[in-house]
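## retry 2 of 3
previous attempt timed out at serialization; input unchanged, resubmitting
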Amino acid sequence: MHDDSHDNNSSYSNAYRQYSRDQVLESRELEVERKYFRIELKENDRGQFLRITEESQGRRNTVIVPGTGLAEFAKLIHDVVASGGAEE
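## retry succeeded, writing output
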């Protein structure tokens, strides 16, 4: 009997194999109130990217920024926080 849940050609299997090949270049963690953030600079065969993961109350959200946009992304965050007068 063949179990399709372990089929190596499934979308999940392909995504997992790709994820397992991602190399972590740098990683930082931060806890703010009840939220936990992990920021990782990673690299795979398609290039570098930033993965931002937020975990809160059993939920996980992830944002991935391609390496080609990292400088603009960082500047945008800096500009928004600076002009909004966010607390430190």
